[in-house]
Amino acid sequence: MPADLFNPAELAEIEAYHAPRYVYAAVDLVVWPVLLAVAARFLTRPLWRASERLAAWLGAKLAWARRAPVLRVVAAALDRMWQGPGWGAALLFALLFFELFTLLDLPWDIYFGYVREKQYGMSPMTPGAFAVDWLKGNTFVAVAVSSLAFGLFGLAKRLPAWWWVLGLVSSLVMVGSAAIDPYRARIYVVQEPLADGELKQRITALMEQAHIDFKDVLVDKTSAKTVRLQAYFAGTGPTRTINLNDSLLAALSTDEILAAVAHEAGHVHESRWPARIASALALLAFLYAVERLFRLTARRAWFGVTGRADVRVLPLIVLVFDLAMTAASPVSGALSREREYAADRSAVALTGDPAALRSMLVKAARTNKMHPSPPRWYVLKGMSHPPIGERIDAVGR
After folding, report:
1. What are residue 234's DSSP bridge partners?
2. How many CB atoms lie under 10 A from the CB of residue 148?
């Protein structure tokens, strides 16, 4: 660990801040799959019955919607896609399942996302502001994931070879989704263009030197929520923005800010196609495994399943997905950490100023309370960034 990173008192505080996170990460490796397995085995039938009853009640209350000019067209299209009127219960089942696990995780979200952040001076958020952000994120994820699950089952009902069709379309969507990244952060934070001046001029000159086109430099107003320093690039090509939060602008010198931007610029020139191809193949393999689950559960009538592509297979699919992601995390984490080292080297080559990069990393480590040397098992489990102490040492070499 670099000698100038933390004094003994600061290091003790950092270790106390992170200790519960390490415990949670270790327990989560076992508990989460067990909870998913229990849900699949014992909660699928009750959730499905509740979904059917709620769908029937809503169907009676909203019967007028099937007569409305536009809504009746939508309802008819969903009936055709689902090959019957059962899509309401299926959608509600997906929503109830994901919301159940969201609520199970809520105490930990509050503890790690609010209580400890306030306790260690990492966030000035009020309980109301935290609740609003949590509701925004939960609503977005619930709608997106439930809609995806609903679409998957609807497509699988109509197409025997649905898995490669969905895999191909999803791979294309993943490639193009980066273009809309700049607009996602606006759900949570206010953004404004960086004021004209020396910093903006130097960033523009640095990007010209790096041969990187960008649309604008934006300031994320995050200081009302967190003291953490943040810098990232969002989007691609004509939609790319360089995002710096106001805490970073207040804490770093111009040279240190340029070092942070140069590091993020290093990621722009990474070769992304190997990862995209690997992701597409992995997705295709997973979707084929889902098709095999459809056939197996239909043949054995698990969870009350009555046919192929029954939505009641969803908890089992989520369990398989969780196990697959856990198994893949060490490999993806190792590759990600190597990309971070490469981006640091690229930043030094671009700016010619290793001292600024090192100083930036030291300040970020102190402000963001980064553990300089986390447990090795935690790193190997899938940390996306190298331990900050190792990164700083590597810059010094």
Report:
1. 241
2. 13
- Write the pLDDT tens digit of every residue in 358-367: 999 999 999 9
* Strand 190-193 with 231-234, pairing: unpaired
> Do the beta carbons of residue 95 and residue 142 sit within 8 Å?
yes
pLDDT band, very low/low/confident/very high, at 173 (cuts 50, 70, 90): confident
Instruction: Give the Å distances, CA to CA, from 356 to 208, 227, 260, 311, 342.
Output: 20, 21, 9, 54, 17
Model confidence, pTM = 0.87
Q: How many CA atoms lie within 13 A of 93 on its CB side?
A: 27
Tokens of residue 196, six digits:
């004209």
352 Rama class: left (phi>0) / alpha (psi -120 to 50) / beta: left
Write the CA distances from 223 to 261, 284, 321, 371, integer angstroms: 19, 41, 36, 22
Domain ranges within the chain, ordered by starting residue? 8-183+271-396, 184-268
Residue identified by tokens 């009538």 is 301
Specify the amino acid at residue 28: D
Secondary structure letter of residue 114 according to DSSP: I
CB 322 within 8 A of CB 36: yes
Per-residue pLDDT tens digits for 174-189: 666 666 666 777 777 8
391 and 344 in contact (C-beta within 8 Å)?
yes
The Cα–Cα gap between 338 and 24 comes to 26
The pLDDT tens digits for 55-65 are 999 988 888 87
CB 388 within 8 A of CB 372: yes
CATH H superfamily, domain 184-268: Metalloproteases ("zincins"), catalytic domain (3.30.2010.10)
The DSSP-derived string for 168-205 is HHHHHHHHHHGGGHHHHGGGTSEEEEPPSSHHHHHHHH
Q: What are the phi and psi torsion angles at 111 (to 5°)?
A: -65, -50
- Bridge-based pairing of strands 190-193 and 216-221 is antiparallel
